[in-house]
Amino acid sequence: MAEAGRSPEELKGVTLLGNKGVKYPHDYDPTLLETFVNKHQNRDYMVTFKCPEFTTLCPKTGQPDFGCIYINYIPDVRMVESKSLKLYLFSFREHGDFHEDVVNVILEDLAHLMEPKYIEVFGRFNPRGGISIYPFANWAKPDAGYEDMVTRRQFEQLSMHEQD
Length: 164
Prior knowledge:
The protein is of the alpha+beta class. Helix content is 24%, strand content 25%. It has one domain: GTP cyclohydrolase I, C-terminal domain/NADPH-dependent 7-cyano-7-deazaguanine reductase, N-terminal domain (GTP Cyclohydrolase I, domain 2). The longest helix is centred in the middle third of the chain and has 16 residues, at 99-114. It starts with 34 loop residues before the first strand and ends with a helix.
């Protein structure tokens, strides 16, 4: 039988959730990310986040770029807390970087933070100059059983955009 609820000890590292005095960041800040323990480590399951209002700046022109960021992961021991993730993603708003870099930075920060069994980050950026950019990056923890999924999911992305 699954245990419901969280003890104060389990919530010790979660400081942003429920904190009304939180300040929104002005530049990229991975220290905003917080985790909590996965209480269902006995099974593999997927967690999906969608950030449809993601913004960042072009590193050359400073003009805003808009897109949707999708994050899918199979947790192991630690999971990312969603309000901290929201503030972290918001921290890219005034940050200048290319779409491909942003997706890889998000992947690296989350993989380092949680060490999930598998994680992927997909950016669906709005067209600029008549070109849409859809960067995809993924990673699997060694010996977690998902190494073959890394290559398979990369090539699946190619067929997902044929109708666009």
